[in-house]
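chain below, 283 aa
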Amino acid sequence: MLCTIDHETAYTYSERVRESYTVCHLQPISDATQYCTGFDLSIEPRVPIFSYRDRFGNEVHHFSYLPKHDVLSICARSSIVTARPSLPEPPGPVHREAVTADPLLPEFYDYLHESAYAAFGPALLDFAAWLGEPGEDLAAYFIRTGEAIHELFRYDRAATGVHTIVDEAVELRSGVCQDFAHVQVALARLHGIPARYVSGYIHTRSGDDVLGAEASHAWCEAYLPPYGWVGYDPTNARLIDDQFVKIAVGRDYRDVSPVRGVYKGASQGLLSVNVAVEALTTQ
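prediction:
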């Protein structure tokens, strides 16, 4: 599928602020499952934009604006071709020996341990015990955890915030895609399955009933040899297909937040975000 994404973020301040420093994860990843054919980032007020590739392989942009200002606008436009199947088959059985013997495993240290938002707290441990041990097939367990989150957790934008940790989401049994992805990531890591948090977008076809569309979305990827990274969206209980666009990967939301920054001034900023995903062709 060929699609375009427009992501607009605007900060409006009641009083003028100064020295804004901002970091963005907005450029889609190019890998074996998708290719970013075009990316443009524009900032108002106009400033020089710098970029680098972080430790997780993400393209990161950053900029600063020092004079006083009361508005900051960030507009990203991307063109992407996705190469995933529209109806992906679930992975076959994956035994623990395949994971532990994989030569790439030492590179996945960060994806095997707790992180700030995906810690192994008491609520998560109780939930994991209720779900039961993975058994012989780690791939089936990974899919099962995503299905359980979808069935047992309520999608509620008002229940959590961007800084909610796994234990809080588990106790509430509520949240949004960020929370559900964190829970699935933590469950996989708890049982020795490398797992990472993925930020991105999902396009909806006519008639689709999809949660998290037309906004930043999040899901989980687990490393399951010989299949490599397998993505699952617990918010919608589905394997990642050609409708998903991957932006960045990391340990949790803190590594890949679309836009974050600081400024000097007493004013509180009013944030508005608009996302539009348009499919140009389908395969």
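Residues 138-152 form the longest helix (15 residues). The chain has two domains: 2-82+257-281, 96-255.
thats it, cya
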